[in-house]
Amino acid sequence: MLNRVILMGRITQDLELKQTQSGVSVLSFNIAVDRGYVRQGEERQTDFISCVAWRQRAEFINNYFAKGRMIAVEGSLQTRTYDDKNGVKHYVTEVVVDNVSFTGEPKQQGGNTTSSTFSTPAQTQNTVDNNASMNESIAIGDIDDFEVVISDDGVPF
Length: 157
Description:
- By secondary structure, the protein is an alpha+beta fold.
- It has two helices and six strands.
- It has a five-stranded mixed beta barrel with strand order 1-3-4-6-5.
- A hairpin with a 5-residue loop joins strand 2 and strand 3.
- The longest helix is centred in the C-terminal third of the chain and has 14 residues, at 121-134.
- The chain starts with a strand and ends in a 23-residue tail after the last helix.
């Protein structure tokens, strides 16, 4: 059996590291993940995925990420139920985070900030284009740089 989840998205709320009664660090947070397709005439849909991290991973995420930051998580999907104080049963589905990665997004100045002011993809692309024109050593290939392979003779796999 296989239960593996890999997601990349933006953290949707200010992070709050908590401790269990036995002193174990736990961090619950949501990430917004855009769907990979857009129906014609509609806006792109976003899913808000609940995640939970424990111990050192929880502390790491709390120290190096903040609301609005892009994060990549890997883990397993877990379902659970609980009854609230009114006796109503709640069903929860969440990703139990096993691994977390930076996404290559530049860190905001001033360290761990809770500000959610990040540039739009168009602004990011303009910044990349401007930086590329300033640095002539950056080369971006195009379709003419590739060669069609007619035969797979000699390919080791």
